[in-house]
């Protein structure tokens, strides 16, 4: 990420739900988080969607390492994914977290976000 003071980055390492920073210091607040969620992109929603393998009508609460953009602050955030019946050839989910509220998501057969309510929409899907 580029800022007025130059490029900035955050480095996280995770193994078996235990996280460390770039210097190898443990991040105990992230213990148990299996996924990272980068605030500026819908692509990281694909990770839990694919990992959870929910069936229509199921939901699951998870904790993620949430990376705020542009400040790169990392914190634990509780999220809920609920899967709904498919519609118009797309899988449908509701995403909810206490910081940002609730959003509808539609994803393709690979779990990649096609439409993220009030945030992002894929314009073209050439393969």
Explain this structure.
With 127 residues, this protein is mainly β. The protein has one domain (2-121). Helix content is 6%, strand content 47%. It has 1 helix and 11 strands, in the order βββββαββββββ. The chain has one helix at residues 46-52, and strands at residues 2-3, 6-7, 12-15, 18-21, 35-38, 59-67, 74-87, 90-97, 101-107, 113-116, 120-121. Strands 5-6-7-8-9-10-11 form a 7-stranded mixed sheet, with helices on one face. β5 (35-38), α1 and β6 form a beta-alpha-beta unit. The chain is globular, with a radius of gyration of 16 Å. It starts with a strand and ends in a 6-residue tail after the last strand. The relative contact order is 0.16.
Which helices and strands appear, and what pairs or packs with what?
Blueprint (H helix, E strand, L loop, with lengths): L1 E2 L2 E2 L4 E4 L2 E4 L13 E4 L7 H7 L6 E9 L6 E14 L2 E8 L3 E7 L5 E4 L3 E2 L6
Parallel strand pairs: 5-6
Antiparallel strand pairs: 1-2, 3-4, 6-7, 7-8, 8-9, 9-10, 10-11
